[in-house]
Every structure is written in C-alpha cells, then in structure tokens.
Design brief:
Helices cover 61% and strands 0% of the residues. The chain is mainly α. The mean pLDDT is 81.
C-alpha cells in the first residue's frame, strides 16, 4: 500500500512538472523580431535569417561583456 502511494505521488509530481514545463515553453514561443545593428542594412530590408539573428545576439553579448570588463571594480572600505 505504501509503495502504491509512493508511485502515485511520483506520477502526480511528474505530471505537475510536465504541465508547468509545457506552459513555460508555450509562453516563450513568440516571433523573434529582427535585431538592428548600427551600420547594418536599412530597416526596409527583408527580415534577418535565424543565423544572422544569432550572430547579432552573440555580437551584442560579447560587446556587453567587454564593456562590463572595462568598468572598474569598487574597492571595499578598509576595516
């Protein structure tokens, strides 16, 4: 009897996690707008391909990381 309740609890927990994951994935499936890069093609150009969008995102991430690395770290006060 205890094993039956254990298995039922496990199946119920798995069903809840699956339902939540499905709801989360469904909410993230939206059209990705074309990203604009300064100096790139004009806005009237056709939408960028997934590969181009991926490269633009990677470039923006790299630039933001480099900008963050250039900032000085705050020095803690001495004790």
């Amino acid at each position: 009897m205890r094993a039956l309740f254990g298995v039922l609890g496990l199946v119920l927990a798995l069903a809840i996690v699956g339902w939540l994951a499905k709801a989360q994935l469904a909410s993230t499936r939206q059209a990705v707008p074309a990203l604009s890069v300064p100096g790139a093609a004009p806005a009237s150009a056709p939408a960028a391909t997934v590969r181009e969008q991926s490269q633009q995102i990677q470039q923006q991430f790299k630039q933001s990381v480099e900008a963050a690395m250039q900032q000085a770290r705050p020095v803690p006060d001495g004790q």
